[in-house]
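Intended use. Records like the one below are meant for learning the mapping from a protein sequence to its folded structure. Do not use them to infer anything beyond what is encoded.
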Amino acid sequence: MKVSHVALCMAFLNGIGWSQWPQTEFMIGTLQDPEMTGTPSTDRAAYTKVKNANFNLLTGNYCRGLGGGAGGGWKTFNTRTPVPGIPGGVDVSNSYKLAQVAAVGGLKMMIQDEDVANFVKTAATAVAQYKSLPTASVAAIAGYNWESEPKSYEVPIHLGLLHDYNTADPKNIAYFDLAANVPDNGSTTWADWSNHIDNYLAEPTVRILSFDYYPFDTGPSSKNGFSQLGMDNILEVNYFRHIGVMASKVKALRAAGRTVNYWGIATATEHHSAYFDHPYQTLERLQYEAFTLIAYGSKAVLWFTYELPDLLGYYTSPTRSTNGGDHDLLYTNLKNVNLALKNMGPTLMDLNWIATIHGATVTDPVTHEGTDPVSQEPHLPTLLSVGSGQTVVSSGQTIPDQFQIGIFNNAKNGDNYLIVHNKSLTTASSITFKVNGIVTIKRHNKTTDSWETVPSAIQSYAKTTEIKLNLSAANGELIWLDHRRLPPSVRLPLR
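Structure written out for the chain above:
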C-alpha cells in the first residue's frame, strides 16, 4: 500500500471504438508504467510488453516521467511543448507518452497535469490543450487524475476538480482513489470510514469507487502496527470487510439509478517501505487477489507494480526481485491471470452483484478475518448471515471453510451467475453445494473463452440443482446458472 500523497495516475481504458461512459469493458491496468527512456523504439517495446500481458490500460506517469529515475520524472512534468493558439502548451512527458501509446495501439492512459492540481490552470484549459494534440494521441487519452488517498478534509477540493474535469470532457473520466479506512491517516471507526465514502459519493459526477488495500504482508506486526495473529502473509484482519463496504455502497447507488462501478486494486509485485513488506507474488497470490475482487463485483483489477518497473519494462533480467523471485515467471503468471480476467470480462461487465458468502467458520484461512479484534464483531458474511439478502444459493447447507461464492444477476438474460473461489493458497479442494431452481450448470473456460456444461444432480422435488466443482489452490470459476435449457436428466414434471 502506498504511504504518500504523490499523485497516482489511475487509468481508464476502453476497447476500440469505445470512449463513452458508462464503462463497457473490464479494466485490467498497471498502476506503475514502464519508465520512459525518451527513445521511441525502446519505449514502444516496453508498452508492447504491457499489452502482451493482457493489460488494456496505463496509469500515466506516476513518478516516472521523461528523464527516468525514481522521482526524477517529476522534474520534467512542467516542461512545456508549445501548442499553437493555446498559452502554456502541454506537459512534455504526457504528450510524448501519449504518442508512444498511440503508436503501440490497444492501450490508453490517464493524463496527470500538475498545473491543474496546483490550480495554476483550470481543468477545462487542460482538456483543451490535450485535445489539441494529434488525433491518434487524443484517442489514447483515457481520462484525468491528480491525487491518491487524500485526507478526508481534502476530499471536497478534489471533488471540485473531478466535477470540473468531467464537465469539460464527459466522454472520458476524472478519478482519484480513497484511503482504506484511514481518511485522516489515523485511528478511525467503521462509521467514520463509511461517512468518508458517502461524502465522496455525494458528488453526482463520481463514477468509480476504489482504494488499494492488499491482503499479504511479511513484515512484523511491530513494523506496520496491525495485528497479524502470528501469520506471515496477513496484512490485517479487515481485507474482506473493506471490499464488502465498497461493494455494498456501489450496489445501493446502482439500485437508485446511479451508474457507479467498484474498481479493485491489487499488487503484482513485492513492495517494501517503512510500514509494509508486501512479498513476491506467486501465481496463487495473484489469483487470490483477482478472484476476491471480482467475487465482490469489481469491474476492474488494477495491478500495482511498485518499485520494479522491469517487470513490465524493457529490462530482461529474470531475477531482479530482492526476495529472489523470478520476474520472467511472475510476468508469465500475471499474463495468464490477466488473460482469465480478459476472457471473463464481457460477462463480468453484465453482472450485478447481489452478495458474497464465505465458509461457515469464524475466520478466513488466509487473512484470519472473521471477528474484529477490537469489537469482536463477526463480519465475514456467511450463508446464514446473508439470509434473505439472496435466494440463489439454497439455504440449510454448509459452505466449506476455504470457499467464497460471489452471487450475481445478469439483467440481459435474467440468469444468475456465481464466482466460486477456493481461498486456500496451498490446497486444491472440491466444493458441493445446491442452488435453487432446475438449471443447466455451465463453467467458463478461462483459457479458451468458452462455456462448458458441468455435470450436476437435479433434485426435482426440492427444485434445486447440486453443483460439484474441483478447484486448484487460490483458483476460481465463473459459473452460469442457465435456466433456458433444462438438463437432459429432467424429464418428469416438477412436483
